[in-house]
User: What shape does this take?
Amino acid sequence: MTEPLRQGIFTTAKRYPVIVRLSTAPGDLQSDRSAALDGMAIKVLGVIGNKVLSKNEGHNQDFLLVNHPVMPFGNVAAYWAFQQMMEKLAESSSANQPATTEKPSDAASMLPASLRAVAAVPYSHILGESFHSMAALRFGSYVAKLSAAPLSESVRSLTGTSVPDTDSAVRDLVVDFFRNHSAEYELRAQLLTDLEQMPVEDASVLWPETAYGRGRSSSTTSERSCSRSRTTSRPSAETSKSRMLNSGAKLVS
Assistant: This one.
């Protein structure tokens, strides 16, 4: 890999065990009949190096990804205001009751336009989705957005496939898949090269892959860096092996 991509955990080639958690966005219990954003959380185990929080004695590094390339709110303050509003609604209404077969149409009507656009994204098989960091992350002297995309044919073939109309569709599909298959995902990095076209403080802006800036990383705007993560067990264990690139757990966003 080129020098801009050899940062932090990606400095040298090394294999790590990882734990991967798949999820849907709502924090309360909801039926899988209701479309929602999907998440992929990757915990890399046994990472040695400098930490953002010096008192943290763990040796792990986390990557939190969502199947949408941008954050509709744009910044933390806007997200926090919306989150507080939704929590108050949940406390004062029946919205805090687990959903079974009814779709939360009332809650959807309260979403800002940017979130309604996200909600309109077709609901498809979670294992065929690509997942994104949404916001920019700093690695050493460079800033990038990360994404994990299906690599093996077993999951690439699931991209865009429909989800059964059942309350536990997502869980059932994942469990059924890993009974007989493994999965590989490729971790990619899109390097910041132009602050005007690729703002850091507004995560609602989609970074163009054609942007070339004047920085040291101008020739590597959207390089596929690092790893292939192969799931080797059933979802109950949620473990996998990863060909990731190492160094310290130095991650500043």
Summary: Helices lie at 76-92, 105-109, 113-119, 153-156, 169-178. The longest strand covers residues 12-24.
